[in-house]
């Protein structure tokens, strides 16, 4: 752990006694002068000196605790005061286990800026909501807040009453939070529910397709615009010696479905381009009006066929090998990955050979009225664009960019005193601020965009990328392509519905059967049975529909008209 030097000890002391400038540049001040005895000052200095001595052979956390104790004693014993919130202590956050390293980085960044120590407790990703449910029943004040994948927002709100809406915090910190600068899909769908704002983002999520431009040009191929084109390209390039070792390589890098807890997102990336044609609110897995799901349809079978067709051309690393590293090392010519790969590529020897492009789309889509697959028309695919596909034909191609979840968000525990609620909000809004999040996006490989300002391609904006070693032409193309996907009117969002974790588990199980090359019709049939059972045990269908529509930002329908009183009828 990092050691605590004299300057760090001073920061902790200043924060605790209220002399540390707040992040907006203001300085707290005492309401009245208090006379403090010489002994109190001496004891306080002795305690902080002991903390510094201890820190030289101990950890930051131990020294921080010693200083915090000294400050609390000073406030209560010497000035007969109280610390807002009852006592000064580290902030306690619950985070998914898979994000421990990233959480530590953000926590340290905030601590260095403010002096507040953040202690993260880990919960298994697939049991995160359950951990909060147990916390509410047993010790509601165990955490000051929690940071989680945005797809868990609805399950947390549905299953616990711990979360504090942040509307009042946002109004008081409007400049730093800059709510309207957040991407619309993040702001309106990932963070808002039931007309209230519940969380701040601290990381985004995005991605696209990465191609070895040199190999595509050599093969006479353009950028694939459909999944069928991608399969043709994979077939043509497969077997090319990409890494120069004298042996043929695979054309596609595909993470083993059985290796990844989020492998079900691959279903969404393919299926969304087939089933979601009428905008974000039409959704790609459930119809928000009829609540019909697409799990057992010909559309799902089509998606599964495409996914299996990629497998013979795919370099599938073992579960411990990094997929992005395999692409950079020349193990393949094509991959689909997050925006973090762009930054990795730009620091590599192949940076001038890689093309970044939008996710493929589909010219064959699911028509919900006829319940059949049909070619795109302007009526069935209002958001489609006319593209030249590999066959040379001009076709309408439907794209519904899907990245699995809308990033990483933090929430406030309403059970904690107001002072701790404010401190948690200050921390998450600081990391989410334009200046800080923009800096982290450029400097930290796994930080991804969630603000409109993150896509600034002005001369000033690109100069910030150039200052840290990036090629501005490549950056401008990357930002423009990612922004076009993230702001598409047909952008596909994650599944926020009652029982969402059970649907996700079903799709995850299906991916193992895809990898095993089981018949797509059988996989789709099992998905249909799973989905039917989950929907049937999720409560009244009208309630499920209402929650799902609210999560999509669809206003609830007006109440039915009340029957008019009938005039009294004359007696016979």
Automatic annotation (TrEMBL):
PANTHER family: ARABINOSE-BINDING PROTEIN-RELATED (PTHR43649), DIACETYLCHITOBIOSE BINDING PROTEIN DASA (PTHR43649:SF12)
Chain spans, region Disordered: 553-572
Biased composition (Pro residues): 555-572
Lineage: Eukaryota, Viridiplantae, Chlorophyta, core chlorophytes, Chlorophyceae
The species this protein was found in: Chlamydomonas euryale
Keywords from the UniProt entry: Signal
Highest taxon of source: Eukaryota
Endpoints of the signal sequence: 1-25
Protein name: Uncharacterized protein
